[in-house]
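Order emerges. For instance:

***
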Amino acid sequence: MILFTKLFLAHLIGDFLLQSNAWVSDKEQKKAASKYLYLHVLVHFSVSMLLLWDLSFWKMVLLIAVSHYAVDLIKLYTTRLFENKSIPFFIDQIIHVLILYVCAYYVDLQAHTVAIFQNLDWNLITTIVFVSFPSAIIMGKLLEQMSHQLEMDHKSLPNAGKYIGIIERIFVIIFVVINHWEAIGLLITAKSVFRFNDLKESNSRKLTEYILIGTLISFGIAILSGLAYLHFTEN
């Protein structure tokens, strides 16, 4: 485990701490002709060797560096194919981490991977999935009639409310699981403070009631889901 952790730390340092925006821009413009692409790979190799502090790993680190070069190069030439530029970024990062995982556990890769899936908390995964988009859809259906009576603010970000709700419900699940109910109260308070100015400026009783009902339903779903998880885990 410590081998993968060190390799992952080296990746974080090389990709995010020791790579400036100027390097990224130069790579995007010049692609394979950019000197910073090769300097970036050299940084990854050097940081990895420094953290491992064992010359016997040089072949593995070299393989990681070469694969990093190949993956980055493919991303540079394929990013233009994506309308959403964040997609190739996340694909690139996932591939890098998978390569690190394979290199760190190549001796017993299959057994280790199987063990990870066998030890997953499927009850918790199911609970988190439920309070994400399924709960957002359920809430949309419950509040559909009310939302038609409101004048929508087109200045807000698209789907911002949905994602805020998903994030807050995941936080509530975490607080319920670790038995810190007081943190849920703080979360409700924080949301109320941020919403106060919007409600004050709108001066709309309907909007206030809509937000209050939505908040209570959202927190209620999350709390009940957390309690259900604890029940099924204990039994």
Notes: Residues 5 and 104 are 9 Å apart (CA to CA).
